[in-house]
Amino acid sequence: MLSYRLGVDDLADMRFACSPLLETATSLWALRQPEMYVLHLPWVRRTRAVLDASAGLDRALLGELVVNGSGWLPDFITPRPDSPLPDANEELSRVRATTPGKALADVRAAYAHRPLPPRIAELAHDPARLRDAIAETVANYWQLAVAPHWPRMRAVLEADMLHRARALARDGAAALLTSLDPTAVWREGELSMNVHRDLHLSTAVAGRGLWLVPTLFARHAISPVGPDEPPTISYPARGVATLWETGAPRPEGALTSLVGRRKAELLVLLDGPASTTELARRTGVTASAVSHHLAVLHTTGLVSRARVGRAVLYARTELGDRLV
To answer: How far is CA 202 from the centre of its chain?
Structure first.
């Protein structure tokens, strides 16, 4: 059971962020058990081929970062974001700056009562060497497996953050928090989630800030396992099914006749927020052409737009929903 107690100030200080290293670490689950992550199979196939061709990656250490049975990961390789859209290199610097003692403690906590696997056990005699080897392996894996796809992944994560921010404004904090996981319950200032049989954490946020972080590879809400870790809830992002799509829908009938095929395609795609770049990728047309069509749809009140970090995200308005 995961439980966070929040006061009024804590609720007012909730923030959203996405994390390149969280996606890097949790993507290892999909490589380990692709049958459980069928939406990511296109990425799994491409990534396995890339990793097989890489000579500089410590494959043994990479595989041991995920604990067999529990799927847990050492907390220090997924530092809580310190800004809404952190840079991967900034997060990697924080991993490299982890004290050797904490790095070893986090590895042992992830493995709990299990023996350390061979490669980690070899390095554990020198905690600084263990930390540095893990940081280097994570950095190499990021470059090979996640960085080439990060703009596409970030667009989906940013769209989720915009959706949740609107839900917070519309429905309130309790409705937002209970939407993060099917088991989530909000009662008398406490958020509880039964997310993992081995996770037992009950702690107060107590002014430390609660960060909500969407992720593409989690199948339920997750959180750091230590009570002293910064309060963070990572939850499954909306729109994962669109992540590896390469084609756009082909709307027919009255909608196409009324607004034209390209604008109709965009309206159908905008059932959730998306950026111009993401829409261009999914429709197979240039970003400038998509931008032109979106400007017309915005002027006519069929889509809305909002800035999230460096991106402008578009979504259908209520009028656009009715028209579609």
So the answer is: 23
